[in-house]
UniProtKB/TrEMBL annotation:
The lineage of its organism: Bacteria, Pseudomonadati, Pseudomonadota, Alphaproteobacteria, Sphingomonadales. This is Periplasmic heavy metal sensor. It holds the Pfam family Metal_resist. It comes from the Bacteria. Gene3D superfamilies: 1.20.120.1490. InterPro entries: Metal_resist.
Amino acid sequence: MSWGKRLALIALVAFLAAMGGVYAGRELFQQTRQSETEIHALLHKQLSLDDAQEVKIDAIERRLATRRQALELEMRAANAHLAAAIEAEHGYGPEVTAAIDHTHQVMGDMQKVTLEHLFAMRAVLKPDQAAVFDRTVVKALTPDVAAPEAQ
């Protein structure tokens, strides 16, 4: 294979890997945001939060926004690392494996941060509000699962 064809193949593989990483990241983060949007709408429109609750939840949301931004930057870096590893190894080697593990670690961190955020918001709620919140969270996390029948 000529040098030019090899270079084109490397560029194609790197591009496809980067696109795959971007797609996976967008799917993960978009699904999280859609669920959070539903939960935030519930919090602000349906639970009749008092002023003190609103202040506490706004502070919790600001902290999440800062942490999420950092994790999204880390995800971009992880995707770039994966693309570079694929370009360097041209196969499923140790560097690609490490890059995939890093990507999964960042995705896991995002999920943990999101759940910590949800529990922090829940802690601000009164018991009746928390019950509605819990049902909404479960529904947002299981949109394709039929609700169990009451016994």
